[in-house]
Amino acid sequence: MPDSLPALRRIRADVQSMHAYAVQDATGLLKLDAMENPHGLAPVLQAELGQRLGALALNRYPGARGDDLKRALAAYAQMPAGFSLMLGNGSDELISLVTMACDLPGASILAPVPGFVMYAISAQLQGLKFVGVPLTADFELDGPAMLAAIAAEKPAIVYLAYPNNPTANLWDDATIEQIVEAQGAQGGLVIIDEAYQPFAARSYIDRVARHGHVLLMRTLSKFGLAGVRLGYLMGPQALIGEIDKVRPPYNISVLNCECALFALEHADVFADQAADLRTQREHLVAGLAKLPGLRQWPSEANMVLVRVPDATKTFEGMKARGVLVKNVSKMHPLLANCLRLTVGTADDNARMLAALESSL
């Protein structure tokens, strides 16, 4: 094997010191670690979708069909007048594109922590400073700390996940508005990340048009299409028009596009799935409340955060019993001994509860 060490010196030192994003091996396990929709397509819809995908011109680059998808998403999301929409290969790509577009000298990105890890990762990869402002012990926004950080850092972007991952909660609306106004006053962007909107009691969509500096980001992953990789970003035309310039020209494949259009045409099917998961969440929460030594927090997503006496022992015990969840206890000090449980079907949740009880 030829020596690769000389070439490795060309790779940034901070990249070499990073850990790659880890996806847990779920082979042979009940997979409840990644907030996926457990419901698949009915056979008749599988056949219909297969015919449509088989008829696509895979020999051609993506074309105007992407515009059809943008119009369909705008209608589905009830996008405000005067707004534009851009597509991303999942929310991850959109986060990277916004970071790239805002990469001015000395720029920084600010977000509450613990939160979605890609905010910090995208900042690091783009060479921007990331400022994480700790939540309170109950995972609420620390309003004074957020306002102080905005005043001190003057960040280019403030991310607010609504609901948050991994804590699953919706933050106080009055505090959010204070943060939005403070960030606008110093000339920065706010991105409201609504990845878990199908499971939440509230959305920011009815407030976003009040501000000229707020963008709303969503994904079809939690809608039920995690494998399709389709995210979208809505905001004032002037802002979206500039950010869209850094998007690769063919970032959404014809297959992704057609799958998303097909799903939106059958939005009622996916709405029924989300309603079922909200019901199953209630049952799961009730079951968790009966387990001794366990604390849980309110959820507005398709996950529930719990604290157990020993997260590593419980995680490994559940895995040994065939159930894979997410051990988030090392992500941030506030998450000490916490596990994140994905809401599944009634049978999934019953298995998870049994494994959890046996592993505590």
From TrEMBL:
Catalytic activity: L-histidinol phosphate + 2-oxoglutarate = 3-(imidazol-4-yl)-2-oxopropyl phosphate + L-glutamate
Family: Belongs to the class-II pyridoxal-phosphate-dependent aminotransferase family. Histidinol-phosphate aminotransferase subfamily.
Biological pathway: Amino-acid biosynthesis; L-histidine biosynthesis; L-histidine from 5-phospho-alpha-D-ribose 1-diphosphate: step 7/9
Gene3D superfamilies in UniProt: Aspartate Aminotransferase, domain 1, Type I PLP-dependent aspartate aminotransferase-like (Major domain)
Keywords, alphabetical: Amino-acid biosynthesis, Aminotransferase, Histidine biosynthesis, Pyridoxal phosphate, Transferase
InterPro entries, per the entry: Aminotransferase_I/II_large, HisP_aminotrans, PyrdxlP-dep_Trfase, PyrdxlP-dep_Trfase_major, PyrdxlP-dep_Trfase_small
Required cofactor(s): pyridoxal 5'-phosphate
Superkingdom of origin: Bacteria
Record keyword Transferase present: yes
Known partners and oligomeric status: Homodimer.
Matches recorded under NCBIfam families: hisC
Enzyme nomenclature, EC number: 2.6.1.9
Pfam families: Aminotran_1_2 (PF00155)
Residues with the N6-(pyridoxal phosphate)lysine modification: 222
Domain Aminotransferase class I/classII large, first and last residues per copy: 32-355
PANTHER family on file: HISTIDINOL-PHOSPHATE AMINOTRANSFERASE, HISTIDINOL-PHOSPHATE AMINOTRANSFERASE-RELATED
Official protein name in the record: Histidinol-phosphate aminotransferase
EC supergroup of this enzyme: transferase
GO MF annotations in UniProt: histidinol-phosphate transaminase activity
